[in-house]
Write a structure and sequence with these properties.
Helix content is 40%, strand content 19%. By secondary structure, the protein is of the alpha/beta class. The strands form two sheets. Strands 4-3-2-1-5-6-7-12-10-11 form a ten-stranded mixed β-sheet, with helices on both faces. Strands 8-9 form a two-stranded antiparallel ribbon. It binds beta-D-ribofuranose and calcium ion (CA).
């Protein structure tokens, strides 16, 4: 299986992504590093810990804590609830000897240079800190999958910007400009998947820990999605990025040069791709431009159905 580190800001869709990743036979989740985003850093770290305790996989991934110094432009408590997990309020054991996410990322990447896929489903603060502190690691990250940004779709936190990129646009810009091998999975694609109420109904028929966990989180997500997004179902943005690590063949990518607007007022945090036919810029990432949405959804649903 492919070794992955999940860098996340739980978040109900981060929770779905974690459940899928832990159950996927294609992946070995070696660590889960928290970043602030949907909720403040401390709560995001607590949520990562809570999710792993609830899922209690046979081999626990190493957990990293979000930096308390992280400064973010927004949160998404309107969608994910004040606790980030839609009011599930899990208890957690006291956190002992936890290292910061950037340290955990650095350790693991140094241990297996070139072999680790990092799936980032929150703001890119940890990845940018890592590249700033240890620039030589840029060539040692096997692959970075970035959930966020848009190509032509509207933003979701502002008219122009996607949430993860907007929250720490400087970090995102630094990561985009870095030489890391990376693939961006934009909202244009993740918006295509809406898990309807039947998804929740099917989960209720399962006895697994995964299903019990999601049943505590997701009802609130269906309510907030209806209220704030006007959709009858929930998006599973972050889980799509995990599927991109499991089954890259379900995605079509294009090599492009991209950067992030960090000073605009209306466009702050927007991702900009140079698609001019005679661009002078060197492409710096692969951008997913098409996916087999039905197959991606089926991977999510089937993996969760078989999850322990
Ligand atoms: C992203 O925003 C967050 O609220 C979700 O968890 C996801 O990572 C989608 O724009
Ligand atoms: Ca997220």
């Amino acid at each position: 299986p492919r070794k992955v580190i999940l860098d996340m800001d739980p978040g109900y869709d981060d929770a779905i992504a974690l459940c899928v990743a832990l159950a996927a036979e294609e992946l070995e989740v070696i660590s889960v590093t928290a970043t602030g985003g949907n909720v403040e850093p401390k709560l995001a770290s607590r949520n990562v810990q809570a999710l792993i305790e609830q899922l209690d996989p046979p081999r626990w991934p190493r957990i990293g804590a979000a930096s308390p110094d992280q400064i973010l432009r927004a949160d998404a408590r309107h969608l994910h609830g004040d606790d980030g997990l839609c009011g599930a309020h899990f208890q957690v054991a006291p956190l002992a000897n936890q290292h910061l996410s950037v340290k955990v990322l650095g350790d693991e990447i140094r241990k297996s240079p070139g072999n680790i896929t990092v799936v980032a489903t929150g703001p890119l603060s940890n990845i940018s800190d890592l590249l700033r502190c240890e620039p030589d690691l840029a060539s040692k990250i096997g692959h970075l999958i970035i959930l966020g940004g848009t190509v032509s779709a509207p933003g979701n936190i502002t008219a122009a910007a996607e949430f993860n990129i907007y929250c720490d646009s400087d970090a995102a810009s630094q990561v985009f400009r870095s030489p890391v091998t990376k693939t961006m999975i934009p909202l244009d694609l993740t918006n295509e998947i809406v898990l309807g109420f039947d998804f929740l109904e099917r989960l209720k028929t399962l006895e697994s820990r995964t299903s019990k966990l999601l049943q505590k989180i997701l009802p609130g997500a269906y309510r907030s999605s209806r209220q704030h997004l006007g959709i009858e179902g929930i998006n599973a943005h972050d889980a799509v990025a995990v599927v991109a690590a499991m089954r890259p063949s379900l995605f079509t990518t294009q090599r492009l040069y991209g950067d992030v607007e960090t000073s605009g007022t209306l466009t702050h945090g927007a991702t900009v791709f140079d698609r001019r036919p005679h661009s002078v810029e060197q492409p710096n990432m692969d951008v997913a431009v098409e996916m087999d949405a039905a197959a991606v959804e089926a991977v999510i649903v089937d993996t969760l159905r078989k999850a322990p």
